[in-house]
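Shipment paperwork, digital attachment
Item: protein structure file
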Amino acid sequence: MTPIAKLRLGVNIDHVATLRNARGSVWPDPLRAALLAEASGADGITAHLREDRRHIRDADMDALRAGIGIPLNFECAATDEMAAIILRLKPHAVCLVPERREERTTEGGLDVAGDENRLAHYIAPLRDAGCRVSMFIGHAPRQIEASARIGAAVVELHTGHYSDLHAEGRLDEAEAELEALRQGAALAHSLGLEVHAGHGLTYDNVAPVAAIPQVVELNIGHFLIGEAVFVGLSAAIDEMRRRMDAARG
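Attachment content:
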């Protein structure tokens, strides 16, 4: 199957803020990382404003909204507090994710099917404000179908389980998970949803996900920021882009 669009790369800069906050300093600056990512060819910047502000802070979101020239993807839980911030900033995109205070990172996808009525009402004013709303979900058909019913523009498929299986060398299981992601992407596309993917992607595991023809955007953060410690952010983004493009070719 021919890819439906050039694959975009969204760079998540959360862990630049994690490093800054570990020292209680103003360095390193997430906005500087975002601008460097933009200059290096990133198609968008993702930042997750958590309820506990463990990495990205409100001032970071203000700075990113004002400072970057590429789309800002505002990742957050579906709370009233976050809705008020989104409606003030009006970012290009909003990705709703599940969030638990004790988790290290986002675990699993949002249960859209189990919270359909509330989420439909929640996203309506965000859509009216011009934001493209995405649901961060697993590949289960019921979650994809519910995302379409509530009027989301995008689904971002959670690739964390696939990434974990790949890293553990459980390759048969990883391939089965990858096939489920392929089927989920095809279903989402057939329902008129734009398909993104992300979580846990690295140089070693990105190609099979990048090759899924319905996926038009990958959002990658932790690995790129970690790799940047050794090679610099521009070089890390260049290599990820190279591998993504090769997979599409």
